Amino acid sequence: MEKFTVLEGVAAPLKMINVDTDMIIPKQYLKTIKRTGLGKGLFSEKRFRDDGSENPDFVLNKPAYRKAKILVAGDNFGCGSSREHAPWALMDFGITCVISTSFGDIFYNNCFKNGVLPIKVKPEDLEKLFDDADRGANATLTVDLEKQEIRGPDGGVVKFDIDPHRKHALLNGLDEVGVTMQKQSKIESFEAKAKQSRPWV
């Protein structure tokens, strides 16, 4: 994974609650196990009409938000079924941070495993961030993972909490395998001792 340190970019406001993983990436896109190419399917049932044309009313189709890197979303984002394709689709589209008051548990865990930072904030802080995001192309937010803060375009700061282990993994670009490999020397030492004490295994 790429290291997540400081992210600066346009924030798109998605003022919807209970956005489930089927809305994030509809089922017809789940045939692949590749992590790339799923950006085209992100929110496709909202982004596109039945005839394939773009829905101009959907936030990510508006000129100011087409290259958004951050999504400010309503409560309970990523609820519903377990599909790792949801964070893959966000990442492939270019969104590497989602801010909300709450997340579906499985989606929340999958984000960290795939380099997407999900940030939980207080309801009053979410409203401030929605106000910032409503500014369109001027809605640039800065997410500083090391300092655990979100800086708005007017200098306002929202602090957030994060599990230290997950923070360490994101800052260093480590997925679960990467975290394990940090302990490779200890693993090899254990295996060597085990081989000596139990050569029949």
CATH topology: Aconitase, domain 4
Overall mean confidence score, pLDDT: 92
Question: How many structural domains does the protein architecture include?
Answer: 1
Low-pLDDT stretches = none
Rg, Å, rounded: 19 Å
Q: SSE order in H/E notation? A: EHHEHEHEHEEEHHH
Give the CATH H-level superfamily.
Aconitase, domain 4
Short description:
The protein is an alpha/beta fold. It has 8 helices and 7 strands.
What is the element layout, followed by pairings?
Layout: E1 6-14, H1 21-24, H2 44-47, E2 70-73, H3 85-93, E3 97-100, H4 105-113, E4 117-120, H5 123-133, E5 140-144, E6 149-151, E7 157-159, H6 164-171, H7 176-181, H8 184-197
Parallel strand pairs: 1-2, 2-3, 3-4
Antiparallel strand pairs: 1-5, 5-6, 6-7
